[in-house]
Amino acid sequence: MLRILLADDHPLTRSGLAAWISKEVGMKLVAETEEGESAWRAILDLKPDLAMLDIEMPGAGGIDIAARVLRHGLKTNVLILTAYSAHQYVMASVRAGAKGFILKSATLPQLRKAIFQTAAGEFYLDPSVSLAQTDGEFEALSERELEVLILAGQGLPGHEVARRLSITERTVAAHLTSVYAKLGAKNKTEAILMALKRGIVLLDQLHLIEN
User: Fold this and answer.
1) Which of 125, 155, 175 is the last residue of a domain?
2) Cα 41 to chain center, whole Å?
3) Is residue 185 part of a domain?
4) DSSP state of 116
5) Average pLDDT, the chain
6) Quick check: 43 pLDDT over 90?
7) What is the 3-state secondary structure (H, E, C) of 117-180?
8) How many other CB atoms are found less than 10 A from the CB of residue 11?
9) How many helices (DSSP H) and strands (DSSP E) are in the chain?
10) Considering the domain boundaries, does residue 135 fall inside one?
11) What value does the mean pLDDT take over residues 68-89?
12) Which of 40, 66, 98, 174 shows its CA 20 to 30 Å from the CA of 73?
């Protein structure tokens, strides 16, 4: 059962999502709140599998809370909810450590996919968000680096990536370091976003396939 925390300061949005989650198979709403600081306390106390956070709330927004989750090394994955599709919001969310980013205009099937994919540690980006390339040239990834990035983007830990590719975990880390340098990324999730933006990785490739 997926344990979910919901934080949104819009009463109608929050109540609608809460009612939907409560009826969905495989999901359990463990807490809901209308502002950031109480959401943060609930994450610390309840340790939910997933925190669905509005990007802007009184006290602390979703991006700020995602950064706290990352800084404290918590296992809760963060899905950012927002009405804004601007590129800077996506990048800020990713840099803060959020695993998913979805618009409030998304369909319920899209939301369900986002919830389970993000909770599993896989990267999820709302399909309506445009990541058209706007930056300059970059050094191409090798075939092996691309394989490592895609598997890591599916939420697989380093040892599992190493097993699937028949290489060492140290080699996996070296490939990821090289990928970050080539793409100008600070971490794995940002590297995935940059690869999506540049069209070298497709969203469909980030869906975990059991092997």
Assistant:
1) 125
2) 21
3) yes
4) H
5) 88
6) yes
7) HHHCCCCEECCCCCCCCCCCCCCCCCHHHHHHHHHHHCCCCHHHHHHHHCCCHHHHHHHHHHHH
8) 9
9) 9, 6
10) no
11) 88
12) 174
- The token pair at 138 is 């970059």
Domain hosting 189: range is 143-206
Average pLDDT over residues 167-190: 88
Average pLDDT over residues 26-49: 96
Token pair belonging to 15: 């109540």
Residue 137 has pLDDT above 80, yes or no: no
pLDDT of residue 135: 53
> 188 or 205: whose pLDDT is higher?
188
Find all residues with CB under 8 Å of 20, minimum gap 6, and list them: 108
* Structural domains counted in the chain: 2
132 found inside a domain: no
* pLDDT at 199 exceeding the cut of 80: no
The domain boundary, picked from 75, 99, 125, lies at 125
Rounded CA gap, 79 and 159, in Å?
A: 25
What is the edge-to-edge ordering of all strands in the sheet holding 124-125? 27-33, 2-7, 50-54, 77-82, 100-103, 124-125
Claim to verify: residue 118 and residue 159 sit in the same structural domain: no
Within a domain: 40: yes
Report the CATH number at residue 83.
Answer: 3.40.50.2300
Lowest-confidence region among 34-48, 61-75, 192-206: 192-206
